[in-house]
Amino acid sequence: MSYLLLGLVLGIIIGANDAVNVFGSAIGSKMLRFSYAIIFFIIFVILGAVINAQYPSAIYEKIVPGYFSINNTIFILLPVIFATLFSVKLKISSSISQSLIFSIIGFALAKKLNIDINLFKQITFIWILTPFFSYVLSIFFYYLLNLFLGFFNLNIFYKDFIIRSLLIIFGCIAAFALGSNLTASVVGIFAPYVNETILINQNFLFFSGSLCIGLGALFFSKKIIHNIGSKVSKINPISALAILLTQIFVLLFFSSQLIIENINIIFSINLFAMPISASHVTLASILGIATFKKFRETNIKNSFMIISSWIYLPVIVFLTSYSITLLFG
Predict the structure, then answer these.
(1) Can you tell me the distance from the alpha carbon of 18 to that of 94, in angstroms, rounded to the nearest whole number?
(2) Secondary-structure breakdown of the chain: helix, strand, coil percentages, each rounded to the nearest 5
(3) What is the pTM of this model?
(4) What average pLDDT score do residues 67-82 get?
C-alpha cells in the first residue's frame, strides 16, 4: 500500500499548491479571509471529487493501453512529488495533471510500453489552447460583470455585500469543479485497480484523495495564495469574480460528463473528460484582466517566472521518470 500512501502525500502537496486557484484571487482582493475560504474549499473539493472525479481519471488508463502494474506507480508518482515540492518551494503554482501525464510518458518509454500518441497530441493541444481561451474569457467576464454592476448603480454597502456573496458562491462552484480535476490528478492513476488490487471502492478512493487535498490547503497553501493572488497583478473584487467564472466554465467543461456528451452531440466532435491545469487557467485569467487594465500594477517578472515553469517542470518530470525507471524499474 506504499504506492497509495504516495498518492495521498501528493494530495497534501497539491492542496498546498492548488487552493490558490479557487480562492487566491478573493483573498488577494481582501474580500475573503483565508480561514473561511479554506473551509469552503475543503467541503466542495470533496463533493466534486466523489461526484465527478471518475470521468477525468479515465484519461490515465487510455494514454497507455494495457496500463501497468500498480507496483510501478511509484516510478510515476515520485517525480511528480519532487517537482511539486520544488514549485511549492518557489511559491509558484504548477500543473499537477500535466506533470503526471509527462511522468507516465517517461515511464512508458523507459518500459517500452505502447503509448496512444494521437491521444497525447490531443491532450497537448488542449493544454496549449486552455490558457489562451481562459485569457479571452476572463476579459469577457470582467467586462460583463462591470456592465452588470454598473447598470444597477448600487450604493457601496449593497455592492460590497453582493460581491462578497458572489465570491463565496462562485468559489464553492469552482472548488467543486477543481475537486474533479485535482482528485483525478492525485488518485486517478489508481482508479483501474479499485475493488481488486487496493481493495477499496472508487468513492472512498476519491474521498481520501480530496480530503488530503483539503488538509494540504489548510496547512500549507497560505504563502502561495498570497503570491499568485497579489504578486502577479493587483486583484480587485470584480477581477476575482471574473477569474472564478472563468475557472468554473473551463474546469466544468472538461470534467462534467453530462456537458461533454451534449457538446459532442451538438457539434459532432469527440471531446473527452481530462484533468485541466487550474494553475494555467488562473494565471491566464489574471493576465487577461491585467491586459484589460493595460498591465497597470502587474508584476511581469513573477508572471514570466510562473509561465516558464509550465515548460521546464514537465520536462524535468519526464526526464526524472524516464531515468529512475531505467535505473530501478
Answers:
(1) 8
(2) 80, 0, 20
(3) 0.85
(4) 84
Q: What is the pLDDT of residue 181?
A: 85
Cβ contacts of 117 within 8 Å, gap of 6 or more = none
**Set of cell numbers at residue 140:** 469577457
Find out whether 185 and 100 touch, Cβ atoms under 8 Å. yes
Number of Cβ within a 10 Å radius of residue 10:
28
pLDDT at 107 over 90: yes
Per residue in 9-18, pLDDT tens? 888 887 876 7
Does the structure show a pLDDT above 90 at 323?
Answer: yes
Cα–Cα dist 28/178, whole Å: 19
The candidate with the shortest Cα–Cα distance to 178, out of 233, 217, 142, is 217
Q: Cα(24)–Cα(250) distance, rounded to whole angstroms?
A: 17
In Å, how far are 33, 114, 115, 123 from 118, measured between CA atoms? 44, 12, 9, 9
d(CA 329, CA 322): 10
For residue 297, count other CB atoms closer than 10 A to its CB: 12
* Amino acid found at 169: I
Q: Which positions ≥6 away from 213 have C-beta within 8 Å?
A: 11, 12, 14, 15, 18, 45, 49, 179, 182, 183, 186
